[in-house]
Amino acid sequence: MTSTTTVMNSPLTGKSSASPPSFDGARSDSYLTHDRGLASWIFTLDHKRIGIMYLIGVMTAFLVGGVFALLIRTELFFPGRTLMDAQTYNQLFTLHGAIMVFLVIIPGIPAILGNFVLPMQLGAKDVAFPRLNLASFHLWVLGALFLVLSMVLSAADTGWTFYTPYSTTTSTAVIPATFGAFILGFSSIFTGLNFIVSIHKLRPPGMGWYRMPLFLWSLYATAIIQVLATPVLGITLLLLIAERLFQIGIFDPALGGDPVLYEHFFWFYSHPAVYIMIVPAFGVISEIIPAFSRKRIFGYKFIALSSLAIAVLGFFVWGHHMFTSGQSVLAGTLFSALTFLIAIPTAIKVFNWIATMYKGRIHLDTPMLYALAFLWVFTIGGLTGIFLGTMSIDVHLHDTYFVVAHFHYVMMGGSITAFLGGLHYWWPKMFGRTYDEKLARIATGVVFVGLNLTFFPQFILGARGMPRRYYDYLPEFTHLHQLSSVGAFILGAGFVMTAVYLIASLRRPINAAANPWGASTLEWTLPSPPPYYNFHEAPVVTAGPYDGYEDLIYVENLQGYVPRPKDGAEGGSGVPPEKRAEIANTSKPPGVREPGVNADGDQSDSATETQKPGEEA
Amino acid sequence: MSQTIVTPIGANAESEHLDAIHQENPHLAHHYDTPRHQYEAGKLGIWIFLVTEILFFAGLFCAYTIYRTERPEVFNWGHQFLDWRLGGLNTIILLTSSLTAAWAVRCAQIGYRRALIVNIVATIALAFGFLGIKYVEYSHKFHEGLLPGHHFAPSEEAWEIESFRAKHPHAADLAEALEAYQASREKAEKSGKAHHDAKAVEGQIAPVVPSRLRELLRNPEATQPLVDIGAIRNPEVEPQEGLLRPKYAHVFFSIYFFMTGLHGIHVIAGIIVWIWLLRRTIAGHFGPKFFGPIDFGALYWHLVDLIWIFLFPLLYLVS
Prior knowledge:
The complex is a heterodimer of chains A (617) and B (319). With 617 residues, chain A is mostly helical.
C-alpha cells in the first residue's frame, strides 16, 4: 500500500530537494492568484477557475429559483389569491422548474465539483479539452440569458416540461425559454464529452479503472447519459420551436402532428436526465462516507458498476412518465418492470455506504452530516419512486403533489444535499479557507429540518388528491400547505445561513491544510488552494483511492492530516510528526499562510478539534 | 498510504524530457505529455461528438419513421415534387468532397502542404456547390408553395408533375380524365343550381362517366400509382369524389425542410471549419507531427456526408 518514496502531502514534503524548483514556486502561486483581473477569469482555460465560475453562476440561478419557490409557497399559504394572480403563478412555477432543472441541478455537481475535482483526482493538469470546457461555461451563460429573456418578454407558463399542444399555442415567450434549454443542453454535452475523454486518456500511471475514485466513476456514468440523451432533447426543442414558428405539424394535432410523440421524445431525454442529476451525487457521497468513517469503502466495484448500470437502465424507463398518456397496457407494464430494476443498483449503493460506516470511526463533520442527511432523504425519495413506477398506483397519484414530493426528495433532498456535502468537503481545497464548522453544522440541521417539513406534507397532500401546479385548493388542504410553506422558509433560512458563513470564510487568511479530512484521493496531495498547473508531473499511483487511511495522521496545529513518517526511510526522520509539521509550517511562503494567525487562532474555532487527536493513537 | 506518490526516482530527467518535447511541438497543449497522447484524446473526443450528432439526427429519423409508417401515401405523394436528378448530383458532389477531405488528411500526414491546400479548397468549393444546388431546389419549392405545415399551398398537384407523367403515363391519363370528369360535374352542378333543379342535376351527372374513364379505372397500372400517392382512395369507388390530396401532405414538407435544413446548417458549419483549417494550413501549422485538426474536421465532414446518404433515398427515392 505504501511506497518507498518521499513526498505526499505538500505541507510536509521535504520536497525542495527532490522536485524542480518551479513546483515550489507554484505553491505560492495558487490558481486563485495566478492571474488577476476579470478577463483572466472569464477567458481562463483553467478547469479550477471554470469550476468556480460555474459555482458563482449556478448559485446565482439557485438564488433566483429559490426566491421563486418561496413566492410559490407564499401564494399557497392560503387558499385563493394570496400574492399574485393565477397567470403569474403559472409563470413562476414554470420558471422555478426550468431554472432549477436546467440551470442548477443538471450542471450542479458535474460542472462545479466535477470541473474542479476531476482533473486533480486524475493527477492531470486539466481536462482533455480546456477550450471546450470554457465554451461549455459560456454556453451556460448564454442559455441562462435566454431564460432571462423569456422572463423579461413574458415568462413561459407551460411548466418546465413544455408539453405540446399547450406550448405551441400559449401566447407567452416559449421560444426564448426552449432555445435557452437547447443551448444549455449543448453546454451539458460538451462537459460530458470532456469528462469521458479525460477519464479515458488522462489517468496517471498506475491508475487502472478500478483504482479510480468513485466520484470519477459516477461522473463517467453521468457523462455517458449527457452525451447520449441530451442531443435528443436538443432536436425535440428545435422541433418545438419550428412548430411554433412555422406550424410544421409534427407535434400539433390540429395539423396532423402527435403530441404524445413530444412526450416520448421529451422523456427519452428527461428521464435519463434525472440520473444526470442524481448519479454524480452518489459519487460525492461515495467520497465523503469512507473519508469520514476512516474506513475503506465497502463494495467498491459494486458501487462503481452500479453507476453504469443506472446509466444504461435509465434509457429504458422513460415510459413511466406516460402511464396516463394513452400508452398501451403492455408498454406500461414493461416500463413499470424496467423501472423496478433501477432500484437494484441504487439499493446496492445505499447498502454499501451503510456497510462502509459499520464499525468505522465516524467523524460528524459537516460533509458527513450532509451525507447522512442524503441517506435519509434519498431513501425516502427513491422508495416513493418505486410507488410511482407501479402503474396501478401511478394512475391514482399521477400529477398530484405526491409526484412533486417524490422528485423534490430526490432532486432537492438527493442532489442538492449531496452537492452541499461536496461543496463543504472540497471548500477548503477550492479556496484554501475553512468555514465556521459550528455554524455549518447548525445550518445542516436547519436545511434537513426545512427539507422534510417542506416536502413530507406534500406526500400526504398528493395521496389525498391535491393536484400539482394548481393555483387554488380546497380548504381541507390548508394545514398541510401551510406546514409545507413554513418548511420552505426554514429551508431558505438554512441556505442563507450557509451562504453567509461560506462567503465570510473567504475573508479569512488562507488557513486550510492540504488534507483537512484525511482523505486519500489525489486532490488532497496538492496544497490548498492548488497551484495553477496542479501537478508538475503525473503522480504515480500505487494503491486504491480509499486505501491507507491508517497511514495518515492528524496534526493538530496544521488542522489536517499528513502521512505517517516511515521510520528511517526518510532523511531527517526521527522527528515527531508535530515537530515536522511545525517545520513545514514555518517554512511555508508568506503568501500562503500568515505566520501568527494560523495555528492558534484557527484551531480555537474548529469544532472538530476535540475529537480528532484521538485517532493519532 | 494514500493513492499517490509523486516524483519517482529520475523524475527530474523525466520532466526535462517532457519539457523538451513541449518545446519541439508548439501545438502540444500543456496537459498532454506527447503529441500522440494529444492526438488520441482528440480522436476519441471527435468520435463522441459524432455520436451526439447521430443522436441529434436520430430524433428526426425517428419522427420520419413514425409518420411514414402511419401515412405512407403522404411520402409517396410528396416525393414526386423532389427532383432526384438534383438530389443525385448533390450526392455525387458530397461524396467527392469526402474524397478530397480524406485526401487532405493524407496530405497533412505526409506533409504535402500544397496538395493539402488544393484538397481543402476543393472540399470548400464542392460544399458551396452542394449549397448552390440546394438553393435552386429550395427556391423552386418556395415558388411552388411547397412549404411546411400551415404554410403549405402547392400550385401544382402531384399527378400534374412531368416526372410523374413520364413514369406512370396511364395514371396521368386517368388523372386527366378524372379531372375533366370532375370539371364537367361541377359545370353541371352549377347549371343545375342555376335552374334550382336538383333532380335534373342528378340525372345529368350520373350517365356522363365517359367510357374511357371507366376503362382506365379498371386498369391497375393506371389506378395503383394514384392510390399510392393517396389521390384516389379506392378504384372500386365511383369516381364522384374526383382527385384528392392526402390529408396531411404538408407533413412531408415539414420533415423535408427540417431534415435537409438542419443538414444544410451542418454543411455551413463544415465550410466554416474548413476555412479555419485552410487558414491554419497556410500559416504552416500542419505537418506529419501535427495533423489532428485536419483529421477531426474530415471525420466531421464524412458524417455530414453520411447523413446526406441517408436523407437522399429516404426523401427523394421513396416508393
